[in-house]
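We modelled the chain as a single entity of 318 amino acids. Its sequence is:
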Amino acid sequence: MFGSIPVLLIVVVLTFLLLEAAAGDAVDAYLLSIGGGDAAIARSLRVSYGLDQSMAARLWLYLTSLARLDLGWSVAFDRPVRDLILERLPNTLLLMGSATALSFAIGSALGIVAGAKPGSGRDRVLSTLSLVLYAIPGFWLGLVLSIVFAVQLRWLPTSGIETIASGRTGLSRAADIAAHLALPVGTLTLVYMALFLRVMRAGMAEVWGLDFVLFARSKGLSRVRIVLRHVARNALLPLVTMLGLQSAAMLGGSVVIESIFAIPGFGRLAQEAVSGRDTALLTGIIVVSAVLVVLVNLAIDIAYAALDPRVGASERGA
């Protein structure tokens, strides 16, 4: 856990330096949005936001502020960055958490079905289906689902996280949010389910040839017990590893999905920060994203040790 602190520090410094190397700043974007302004106004704004200081001074100021959990001030929104992130992050966590849980559960279950008998008809069908789904771009799939289920059939809302000013509370509000998230969650689930299915199926096909499986067969255990308690459990290890590696990709993928379905989330906030050249906001978003990825991978390590006791034993022995 403590080893992640230098990683986060490197992420912060590199992000700051890369954004500093980009042309323009938040003042340029603001003046462009209001139709321009003279040099005196631009200079005054840069002084008020501290953009007139040297890069080293601003980096040191940002690091000391970050140590106090102060992510700075958003020039584009004229609000603290921390408040903006706390306002948008729950929507993205709800979206990505639901999609991750569903894709992992369905993908691993279908992978077990396909890998229970490699080379069978159901294996070929599921493998082909997963390949087709994984080859489809997520943004295109989201648009198609939106056209079919929201525009033509009108079963689901087209955009947003919930009905604006509906006054709903309790279960009624939860049902409204679920209806708004059905399409974006379904899009992400189909895309990542295909990946988990293929990884699970490939892992099971590899485990079938190991000695302990042959020993289980020689003991006369039922095929269902061998599949669930021996083959699937060991094949689940690379799937759990893939889940950790995909956490950053799934968080980045929320930018496209949130833009398509107009969800006021973390990814859309990043897009707005880029368009507004808001360095402080974009840096805060990247830092929080890095923290989330570190936490997810920590949880994956714990799950990996629970699935394979040899991992925890080796670490204790070391």
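As a brief sanity check on the tokenised model: The chain has two domains: 4-81, 82-317. The chain has 13 helices and two strands.
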